[in-house]
Amino acid sequence: MQNIKTGKEWKNFEVQQYPGDNSRFYREVFNTRYPIIDKNTPISSIGSCFAVEIANHLSKNGYNYPLMQDEMTQERKSSADWGAVYNVPCMKQIYQYSFESFNPIVRWWEKGNYVIDPFRRDIAYDKNRKEKFFKRHAQNSYKILNNVEVMIFTLGMSEVWRDKRDKSTFWRVVPKRLYDKNIHEFHIMTVDEIIDDLYEIKRIINTYNPKCKMILTVSPVPFFATFRQDTDVISANFNSKATLKVAVDQFIRNTKNTYYFPSYEYTLFNHINPYKKDNRHVSPKVVNNIMKLFERIFVK
């Protein structure tokens, strides 16, 4: 057997070489630029709790981050009381009821004199005035989504709870008092399902606000827990992030005015101990570094 020495034929092609030390990541790897934002550009964000970090940074640093809050709710973490939105189907549902229609079989979860919105985090209305309050929210949501020129989507997880009958997807697990195994199901979304939901969001954007550009990122915040029984929570988390990453990559390669922001990769591969003591939420220092990278890539 003859040993054949491999050469460096790869140098004949345009390649990106994996950096040998962390100091080169920022300088050599994350060097793509899409200057689509300035301080006057109407910009908003929707998604997991990392979207809140983005909102806080943009608001505090003079960017045009509009807020249209409903005084009847206590949620103050998004432009129009969307709350933390952990999965893509819930994002899609927000776009649907803001511009067209979203009519699930079960619209509210009742609790005493209040109703809880199953599709938004920590939103409760007086039972007798729920339609009035929700209509106001939908109008505010429409105004924001119809006028922003850049929308940031932070995708959190592929595990969801939903209604088996119409596939309407909840923001959280079904409360024990309401759970019905014949109606509710835990579901692990596939790459194709996520892509389909992203295409539906893109369709609505192209129809009603075609000037709006989409920036998508995978949240660096890992699971709090998993409902899977066939694997451990760490493996489930990495499976979820990988599924989201593959779906976003395929979606962006096949659409226009869509961009990827590598907050997940930058957090894991360019920082030692990037998380707070809970080992989940990103530390303020790292968040600041991530937003510097965001500005370097997207700000004119």
Order of helices and strands: HEHHEEEHEEEHEHEHH
Strand content: 5-15%
Low-confidence stretches: 71-76
Strand order of the largest sheet: 1-5-8-9
Mean pLDDT: 90
Radius of gyration in whole Å, from Cα?
Answer: 21 Å
Biggest sheet descriptor: 4 strands, parallel
Total domains, how many?
1
Structural class label: alpha/beta
The number of helical elements comes to 8
Q: Could you list some keywords that capture this structure?
A:
300 residues, alpha/beta, four-stranded parallel β-sheet, three-stranded antiparallel β-sheet, 9 strands, 37% helix
Tell me the layout of helices and strands.
Blueprint: H1 23-29, E1 43-47, H2 49-60, H3 88-99, E2 109-111, E3 114-116, E4 124-126, H4 130-147, E5 150-155, E6 159-163, E7 184-188, H5 191-208, E8 213-218, H6 233-253, E9 258-260, H7 263-269, H8 284-298
Parallel strand pairs: 1-5, 5-8, 8-9
Antiparallel strand pairs: 2-3, 3-4, 6-7
Structural description of this entry:
The chain has 300 residues and is α/β, with parallel strands linked by helices. It has one domain. The protein has helices at 23-29, 49-60, 88-99, 130-147, 191-208, 233-253, 263-269, 284-298, and strands spanning 43-47, 109-111, 114-116, 124-126, 150-155, 159-163, 184-188, 213-218, 258-260. Strands 1-5-8-9 form a four-stranded parallel beta sheet, with helices on both faces. β2 and β3 (114-116) form a beta hairpin. α3 crosses α4. The protein is globular, with a radius of gyration of 21 Å. It starts with 22 loop residues before the first helix and ends with a helix. 35% of the residues are buried.
